[in-house]
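U., I forgot to send this yesterday:
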Amino acid sequence: MRELMFKMFAISILLAVAISAMIAFMGHGYAYVSEAHLEDHMVTKAVDCGADPELALWMLDEERLCGIPLELRGYTLAKACMESRFNHLAKGDCKEDGRCRALGLLQMWPWVTKAKWNPLTPIDRKDPRAVTRFYLELATLQMVPSTRWRGGP
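Result:
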């Protein structure tokens, strides 16, 4: 049952992304769906997955503030649903001796608390807001084109 819910949530997020991409492609023609309607749908699906509605809205607001395009908005909600079902105390990637590497809402590994390049360190992996900010910071760093030579032509 849970696996089916995970799949349904992921499909609904992908559907929202596909609709928003279609809107961008069509130039707001007859198939226009408002950003607020898409976000309401995402929050509803996140609540169905176990999220606190206030936290889900906050996560979407953080994505907007970080400059995540509308076509990709909601991916932190989808990740939190798939990784921990919005349980900020969830443990994962456990070894046979019982030690678990991944912890928290987005299942962050211990290296997150020691990342020297991260201005938000130290991070409490059990704090959903701190982990979401870190994840979005990491995502926005990866969205910036690199000027490093990659060995190509």
